[in-house]
Amino acid sequence: MTRMTEVSQGLLGWYRAHRRTLPWREEPTAYRVWVSEIMLQQTQVVTVIPYFERWMAAFPDVQTLADAPIDDVLALWSGLGYYRRAHMLHRAARVVVDHHDGALPDTLDGLLSLPGVGRYTAGAIASIAFNLPAPIVDGNVIRVLCRLEGIETDPREGATNKRLWSLAEALIPEGQARDFNQSMMELGALVCSPRNPDCQGCPVSKWCQALATDQVAKLPLKVKRKAKRPMALACAMVQQADTGRFLLVQRPDKGLFAGLWEFPSVEVERLPSVTQGDRQVRGALAEHLTSMGLEVSLGASVSRLQHILTHIRLTVQPFEATCTKAPAQMGPTVRWVERDELDGQPLSAATRKLVQRHILNPEPNLRLL
Ligand code: SF4
Questions:
Q1: Strand 334-337 relative to strand 246-250, pairing
Q2: Domain 229-366, what fold?
Q3: How do the domains of the chain map onto residue ranges?
Q4: Identified catalytic residue from 6, 26, 27, 37
Q5: Is the C-alpha dihedral spanning 141, 144, 148, 149 positive or negative?
Q6: Does 286 sit in the ligand 1 pocket, CB within 6 Å?
Q7: What is the tens place of the pLDDT at every residue in 127-161?
Q8: What pTM was estimated for this model as a whole?
Q9: Does the annotation count 157 as an active-site position?
Q10: Which protein residue has the closest C-alpha to ligand 1 atom 1?
Q11: C-beta neighbour count of 119 within 10 angstroms
């Protein structure tokens, strides 16, 4: 047996004995694999499981997903973050229904033609659902391969990335892509973890270059990430004086929290310290509300919220607000919502936190000014 074959067989044997039971593994149809893989991007397994189960209960197949209004899709996604993924799933479901008779394509090229499906996701669906010998390279696989092969260059850089994809392909044993690809991801998740990997319990330690050369902690090569851009928003939790309903507005289709709903807000250059007072921010927010045709009295500012996104460090300064007059028609991107219905709306993650903290479960000591 060659070294490569021994590595593949070692991984396969270990996987079959140690694989976790996960809902999408039990019935790996193309649709279930696709949804799980999209949910698992940037999100941990334990977080994804309840979302996946709720999703499958609401949208058991591509047709149901394609027929659902985007608001229902976003509401089920709410809290999972990176909402572009939900938009893409929805859009791709419509393409599958319109152009593939409601069944996901069973070729790599067919899968790659769907919106939001890149090389990794296509490889995952092709191998896990259809057992096609398509490689997959994600963060877990990168870590395993860089350590196993002692790769000391930046895995995100072109030539190294290409090498990783070739390696991942060359390692797939004939007819066993489904289990093999999952074995590499599983090893990265359970054994070859970023910190303190369990090299003693690793089924491929015998062939691991990083272990042999004492470089486990150094690989894969870590490249410094760009600092997150700070962003400040002031928002008004506007409540209608007579009905007690809250005002939500929909964010644009592109950019931060695309298509999700939030309290009316304005971006400000920076938020003042508590001692500086908030006259300017208040002024900007009041002007924005007036431009929407509302008569609003802005109340107290309440405690700020920090929300960290991939590239942005967001700070939100919420204000209480009461609306005494509003236009009868405010358009499709504005809605008044009962307090009890706020939680079921497709809210941005930051707004969901505000709703919980200040409206549904308010803590009196959170008030600042
Ligand atoms: S021996 Fe350690 S570093 Fe090498 S693949 Fe196994 S767990 Fe990862």
A1: antiparallel
A2: Nucleoside Triphosphate Pyrophosphohydrolase (3.90.79)
A3: 3-218, 229-366
A4: 37
A5: positive
A6: no
A7: 999 999 999 999 999 999 999 999 999 998 999 99
A8: 0.73
A9: no
A10: 205
A11: 15
